[in-house]
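Raw record, unedited: DNA helicase RecQ
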Amino acid sequence: MTGIFMPLPLHILKTVFGFPAFRGQQEEVIRHVVEGGDALVLMPTGAGKSLCYQVPALCRDGVAIVVSPLIALMQNQVEALTQLGVRAAALNSARSPDEARVIERRMQAGELDLVYVAPERLVLPGFLSLLEDCRIALFAIDEAHCVSQWGHDFRPEYLQLALLHERFPAVPRIALTATADGPTRRDIAERLNLQDGRQFVAGFDRPNIRYRIAAKNNAREQLARFIEAEHGGPGADSGIVYCLSRAKVEETAAWLAGKGYTALAYHAGLDQSVRAGNQERFLREDGIVMVATIAFGMGIDKPDVRFVAHLDLPKSLEAYYQETGRAGRDGQPADAWMAYGLEDVAKLGQFIASSQASDAQKRIEWQKLNALLGLCETTRCRRQVLLEYFGETDHPPCGNCDTCLEPIASFDGTELARKALSCVYRTGESFGAGHVIDVLLGKDNDKVRRFGHERLSTFGIGTELPAEQWRSVLRQLVAAGLLSIDTEGHGAFKLTEACRPVLRSEVRVDLRRDPLPARGKSKSSGGKKTAIALSEPGDEALFQHLRAERVALAKAQGVPSYVIMH
Ligand code: ADP
Ligand code: MG
């Protein structure tokens, strides 16, 4: 292809990719890059970001260099491109030195249209000088949020990509991501030296996804009821179930299998071949439920995932958006379902508190956690809350999320709030939900006696509500910033400054009237279980796991701040 007769983007789209028309802003982005401009592209998962650099790669002279964070992601794309007759290859640690040399020689000879490269490899001096011998069509930086510490997938190697601008000032660069709130967006542009490039921001709304968030009350049973009611039970719809720990992934997969589901597990602790096999089956077969940690899903392009369920809170709203975004990529109705409880908040809080991150970094993490809580506890349209976080403030209520479909009644909960806050205060701000609720309900048990709490003025003042509803009240008080969870004190509640006027009855507290969760057969409300679960068996394994997993996934020299160093 010569620089004089550049093939037209639409022609490439039709003849090479077999699609009749561009979607959304694709055409604009492509024209800009083909003409040599830099671009930062923010589009939701499934919007079609890949074509934004693949088409220009074929329009412009030379080889396009695509930076991608995961080997699986690269293989996937190279395979798909090769099938379309595009000359593509991937350079990463999965290649032998000989194979790599062959690819490099083909690059120099102008025999490749796209080469996918791991970031750490791209910035090697030897590779950079090799690039100087090649004609380069463009640089594409996929999953560009990896460059930002604000994002949820920080990869230190991405930071060095800023040097591309200095080394190759004439080559257009296009950075792409599905996750970027305002601060992350600025951060990406700055760190990649893309301030002068054009930003293309597509709407983040995924109208076909229905968001629902339920209060945790035996989450596994809740999950099974949800799949049965909405997704036809075993063998019907494909779905992903996210859990925080490796152990919980395995337990949940086994439990679902016991109920007749084809449930597979995916986490970093599994053998590479098992993991690859499970992923392969999930992609190829119908009706499989993949139970996984966050390790699963980046770049997985399965269009007909009908539900994404969270049995544990994700790390942030961005993570929630990205993970739930794997549902319904075909545009057909899909569900994002989550069960959450206070113990999840405490757990994530502990990750933050005990990480080795700087105070500034920890503040960011807390803000992110609070934003997530805000989504969980909102009485407003969930989609509105989610999209506002990404800067889209002009959406009407969607009419398709749980809070729209079953509007949450709110009521004057000032008195309940005062009772709960006083009880936290009287018990010395040293206990989590379980004990505080026991005292409110006047439970005369060992722990209460041990601390002499049966003598408190708040003992038994809350018998008007059952334990689950008190838990909902406490969650809302945390979400409203009236209570904080002291992660150094093993998850004890603390009063915040904001609760003074409440205790003095100067302001009114509106609470949501949670639909009473259907009662499970068993023990869901025992104080012991709801107490902040620091001592839960498996936590150590969980921490280890998270650390190992993130490290393996990111191959990072610096460990993301929310991974605990215990
Ligand atoms: P993203 O990277 O934004 O998450 P992808 O680039 O993986 O999304 O694209 C998602 C899916 O959409 C892919 O299956 C892709 O082939 C398809 N797609 C992208 N652009 C178009 C288009 N213009 N017409 C039809 N299908 C498209
Ligand atoms: Mg992509």
